[in-house]
Amino acid sequence: MPQSVRFLVAGCCLALLLPAAARAGGVPVYDVDVDDALQRLRVTVCFGGEPPRMLHAEDERASRYLLGTRANGLFSGRLRPLPSGAGTTMPVRPDDRGCVRYDVDLSRDSDGGFGALFLRRGGAVVLSPHAFLWYPADAGEVEVRFRLPAGFEVSTPWQPIGGGARAPAYRTGARPPSWDARIAIGALSSHAIALPGGRLDVALLPGSPPADPDMLLRWLRRSGEALVSAHGRLPSARVQVLVVPLGSGREPVPWGEVQRGGGDAVHLYIDQRRSEQAFLDDWVLVHELSHLLHPPMRGSGRWLYEGLASYYQNVLRARAGLLDEATAWTKLHAGFRRGMAQTKRGRTLAEAARNMPWTREYMRVYWSGAAIALLADLELRRTSGGMQSLDTVLGDLARCCLPADRKWTDREVVDKLDSLSQTEVFGRLYRRWLDSDRFPDLTAAYRTLGLEAPSDKDIRFVGGAAERESKRAIMAGGGSTDPR
Ligand SMILES: [Zn+2]
Where do the domains of the chain lie, and which CATH numbers do they carry? Predict the structure, then answer.
């Protein structure tokens, strides 16, 4: 179909189906029209009240993708390019219905790296809402309605509110618009994995060679079940899972991340040529899923959130049978040793966590946090006779406070975990180790667990039934028997 006719048809149908106006006093409504060559998004945003004269982007890179604004009616107006140096502000002239139109360029190449706002993969694109949603000042929740060509699908972390397959509509929710997310549009394949407490909404992007969806879904389900073994249910009722095949990579999952904008999401950039066993043996997915056990936190909480994920990436894989128990302890031990090797005298753990992106002391921060997670887990199990554990307290945290629409501080999480467990376990560990320039002392923990460490990479299992039971209780899940 020639482009001009296609636009005419799209314009005609949109005009017939949609008044393209926000409900009076309601949230801004964005209609996003997708062309079948994935070259351009035509955005119409209408406002419930007085329309703004300026729209703002959440990311300064957004102006790279903005072609300009349209005036004088639906898709018929001239596109006015943004003045150069406009940065994150776009002056707009709303029409007499209070709507603004602008176009977003998808024709350019991806701008590199996994943090890019835009990535093209074959017949699909992955883009940040920051690349195509320009907001009025003080925007909260907005409604986004896509118009899709036949054969296209959309994956978002947002709450679906209907609209059907060709016109899916969403509410972006209460989380701040500044929180990032990824939206996939195009020839996706969508799959739902139901698990206790919710589901993983998986979108698999096209790849060359094509990925094997059945194999990837088995890996995702198995890993989701590992997460559920923490406290019995998914911490979020709906988790967007984006799987982006890269076609090559030094590992099965060269990049994985959790993003929280508009909902909880895990993004996996994979080398789809790897075997199923290679994916099952990889740690990244269970690490990322483990991040769903805690609320979003500020950067100073890196020691806590990366510590929890680094601890659980081994514990949960052992519970799911993805690692044997001995290997899980060996991997934890090797991690602790990497953390010790990077622990420098004169710099506290709190400082290391705050400065990690610049000093790159990842090993110290991640594995100090994992050591504190192990110490907390053992202490809770010991003092409660196996009735409590890190699992049970995180289950209580999920029930009271997840999913969370704001970022917590590490101190808030620590205090909440203490109040939920009616202990001072977390506060004591926080006071003992956050202002220390030493790696958390695991001597007594290793004694309790019957672990001896002849080298950085080796661990020896010693002790009797009590020590065996302490190890088993963690790696098999559930409470331990009273070690007395
Ligand atoms: Zn992490």
Answer: 3-178 (2.60.40.3650), 189-282 (3.30.2010), 299-476 (no CATH)
